[in-house]
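We modelled the chain as a single entity of 160 amino acids. Its sequence is:
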Amino acid sequence: MQPIRIKPENMQLVNNAIGVALEAGSFEMVIRAHDSSVKARQRMLANIWYKQIGEAKGISIGAAEAYCKYKFGLKASSFDDPDREAAFRAMLAGHSYEIKLQIIEDLSDLFPILRANGGLNSHDTGLYLTAIQRHFAEQGIILASSNEIDLLNCKAANAS
């Protein structure tokens, strides 16, 4: 089940979802404060894009994230410290491309590109996301935000 943002206007939807879960037996619910910081919105967008990339390429979301980290994230995470990228690349040297991506996917904590605490700053994350969007646009894969997806699916917006 996808996370549901609780707002006054969707309380009935939340109540319905809880009712369905209760009828099914048991369920787990996590309620947390919404983080609306720039970094949080950038992480959310990246996660949407990793899913879209995975679907377009026929790979897992984790593999899509590893690809982006390898292709764009290592450079972006090293803007302030060029030796960092060299160290990461040396660690991955000698492995096939597929193994490199698997290492990044399996050891994601060693490659902290997008983290709430740590990882890239907002500016560098913007550069990382722009590089991803441009790269996949060149391949004909248009990455959209959740708001853009909602707009594309809105009957009123698409009425002729």
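As a brief sanity check on the tokenised model: The chain has a mean pLDDT of 78. Residues 13 and 124 are 37 Å apart (CA to CA).
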